[in-house]
Amino acid sequence: MPSKSSSPKKSKSPADEVGSGEVPVESAKPKKADKGKVLSLIEDKKPRSRGAAKQDASLPHLGAKKAAPPAPKKEDEEPAAPAKPTLDERKAAALNLFEDDDKPKVRRRVTDESAQQNALPPISLLNEPPPKPIVPIVHAPPADVPAPDFEIGESGEKIIHLKPPIVVKDLADKMGLKPFKIISELIAFKVFASADKAIDIEIAEKICEKHGFKLERDKREKGGGVHKIEEVIVEPIAQVVEEVAQEKLELRAPIITFMGHVDHGKTSLLDALRKTTVTAGEAGGITQHIGAYCIFHNGKPITFIDTPGHAAFSAMRARGANVTDIVVLVIAADDGIMPQTKEALSHAKAAGVQLMVAINKCDLPTANVMRVKSQLQDIGLAPVDWGGEIECMEVSARSGLGLDNLLETMSLQAEVLELKADPKAEPRATVIESSMVAGKGPVATVIIGQGTLTVGQPFICGPYWGKVKALINDRGENIKEVLPGMPCEVIGFSDMPHVGDEVVVMKNERDVKKLSVERLEEIRQKKLTVPRRSTLEHLFASIEDSNKKALKVVLKCDVQGSVEAIAKCLTDINNDKCNLDILHKEVGSINESDVLLASASDAIIIGFNVKVENKALTVSKRESVQVKLYSIIYELIDQVKEAMQGLLDPITREKILGHARVKQVFKVNKGFVGGSVVTDGTMQRKQRARVLRDGQAVYDGGFETLRRFTDEVGEVRNGLECGIKLNGFSDYEENDVIECYELEKIAQTL
């Protein structure tokens, strides 16, 4: 018996062939015949019997052809090459799908109407053009009408709550209407809006009333609807040394300030201690700036602050006393205690710092140390050798007398005070002077209070921000960091900082910029505040001020401290007779914009220790603007006072020269002449005269003629007779008194 394959197929009966009308997949996909191997259309499996229900399950399609029954395979016969399938057979085979176990799928007639529409067409219709697909008509579901959202009031009315702004769509949702109905009703009010537009509250109330609703506005809560939390940036709080753990604190350099009267030798003493020549480069031999220096004594740093002694620099002395630990009061042995010495003492007491006295110029023949100590005793500063508590050292900056003793005493006082700071804290520094340097921009001299200031740190200083670009010590050397108590120059400010402000280092540059913008905006808002309303008294005061003379000034100085000092001195000059208006005050050289401002305002430019740019010099000559340059402060103040006095109109006064009494009236060709006798003084023809009758002036004018007999004279003295004819006056009477007087002008003083 021949072996059967695993999946033999049963030969179909004619009824089955007619009922099936399907072609096996093998006939639909012919392959190239290999030599000796041919695909068989009849499998070796045992044919399966198909039931009657399966035979009727699939009816032959219209136009389907009968499939030829496959011939049985013999054992010894070579399989014959299959015939080439026709196009219809290939299409039928492509549409016939078989399962994985080669069990043919039985197609059943689709009874569902919708499924029948999506069924594939019969094979006979593939050659015909496909029919147009039937697209079912889908009706959109009805839109949901929103339910009205309202509350019933006490009186039974429907109340709608909405927060402004009133949007058309929100209003329609609250009333349970569609937005287009609201839009159409708005047209009657001549309002053309879309669903997402806001409308006026009055119009919305009318729409609600039309539909039987009442609109109530809800107040929006403060900050409501804002999801972004505004970040509040504040500068770090200064560290309190007493609250810091002792293991974190380290000894810092003491800050010692030299204070005293002008020309008592403060800068000369510093030069002798530092072995420098700062005094030689100062105009007039006096210090007009505040400076900070550092020296090393026995390997330990000591910071010195030099303050000006002139009366105008009171603010600088106060600033030096506020940032210092020890104040050295310098007094000249040949001069004694002077006004600025007492003022410096007051600043030191107000700051509550340790006080020492250095009696300078002890090597001069006119020196009187005992007198100075006696004066100190009188003002409550008893020296140690007199049983007091104030250290008094006799020194000489020129010969070097007592300088070592001065340094030792200052070091000892610093050790007693135990000055400590945390070098790892957030850095903070105090600005003691600021200036504008060409090529560097705004530069500030600072003294570090806490922490360690390094290059690259962002900081905030008053309303201005900055980033440390460079640190320069007192000898002009670039350094990388500055420890507490040490002075340095900081480069990297966004604008000129104010002296006395603190440099506070913050975490990042974004925070310092934002904080700077907030502070500048706050300053701007203060300037834009509305002034109070004018009253009648203010009106009269403004009229009186407008009638006063005014000197307008544009002030340019080299450092910020000088700007403050000079501006204060010039403001103090103001009085009831003349005003002084400082239109602009700034640090830096005189530029073209300053000249144009002075030209437009009819002002003068005052420069203190600054230069005039070449372009500004050309413009000042073209605009005829006066530019005055000074290097000594008291010369500047004196000349400004003189300029203000020159603006004042001179005072006119009458000076009585003499009197003459009319004895007889004579008629001449050109009028009448009063024959008079000079009773006192003189009558001068070039001066003025008035006629007094019964004590009242009836005429005031000048002389036309003054004759003595027939001669014209210029002057007639006491006791002599003369003929007097006045300009335009002929109504002489006997016993009239002719008074001769002179108008003299006297310059006013402030």
Low-confidence stretches: 1-59, 71-79, 98-103, 110-117, 222-228
Distance between the termini: 150 Å
Largest sheet: 6 strands, mixed
Percentage of β-strand residues: 25-35%
Oligomer: single chain
Q: Please state the CA-atom Rg, rounded to the nearest Å.
A: 56 Å
Determine the fraction of residues in helical runs and give it as a percent range: 25-40%
The number of strands is: 35
* Strands ordered across the widest β-sheet: 8-9-7-10-11-12
Judged by helices, strands and strand pairing, the structural class is: alpha+beta
The helix count comes to: 19
- Overall geometric form: flat
Q: Provide the residue-averaged pLDDT.
A: 77
What secondary-structure arrangement, pairings included, does this model have?
Elements: H1 14-20, H2 25-28, H3 52-55, H4 87-95, H5 113-117, E1 151-152, E2 158-162, E3 166-167, H6 168-175, H7 179-188, E4 198-199, H8 201-210, E5 213-217, E6 250-251, E7 255-260, H9 266-274, E8 291-297, E9 300-306, H10 314-322, E10 326-332, H11 339-351, E11 354-360, H12 369-378, E12 391-394, H13 403-417, E13 420-421, E14 428-437, E15 441-450, E16 453-454, E17 458-461, E18 464-472, E19 478-479, E20 481-482, E21 487-493, E22 502-505, H14 509-527, H15 536-547, E23 549-557, H16 560-573, E24 578-587, H17 592-601, E25 604-608, H18 614-623, E26 627-630, H19 633-647, E27 651-668, E28 671-681, E29 683-684, E30 688-693, E31 696-708, E32 711-712, E33 715-716, E34 721-726, E35 737-746
Parallel strand pairs: 2-5, 7-9, 7-10, 10-11, 11-12, 23-24, 23-25, 25-26
Antiparallel strand pairs: 1-2, 3-4, 6-13, 8-9, 14-15, 14-22, 15-21, 16-20, 17-18, 17-22, 18-19, 18-21, 27-28, 27-35, 28-34, 29-33, 30-31, 30-35, 31-32, 31-34
